[in-house]
Amino acid sequence: MSHLHNLLLDTLLGTKHVDSAALIKIQERSLTVASPGFSVMPCDVRTLVNGFAKNPLQARREGLYFREKDYKCVRADDHSLYAKNENTGVVVVKTHVYLLVATYIEGMYPSVCVEATEKLGPSFDKS
């Protein structure tokens, strides 16, 4: 797991525009690895996995309840889910095996968070 953990820390948190990151194994619906201090509860794992299992339009209409906050979905399709709450947000990229989750906070550029997460996603299918 240290390889995956280092990949999350170096590639995502290293941008300085990702506050926290996690990797969720889709099939097992379990947290594989997370950045220090980022706790993703089982109900949050279910929320994210279900966000892709349901019709993306439904996720977009209903929004997302993640880590005790309501987020407005700004993108929801078969590959990606972007949601925001005021000046914070969550970016989720689906691979064949994992959901890659990244968050940003006020003062960070959401576009950098999105770009880094989208670029990193496919490398987890090679791990």
TrEMBL record:
The keyword Signal does not apply. The keyword Kinase does not apply. SMART domains: PROF. Pfam families: Profilin (PF00235). Keywords: Actin-binding. CDD domains: PROF (cd00148). Belongs to the profilin family. This is Profilin. The gene is PFN4.
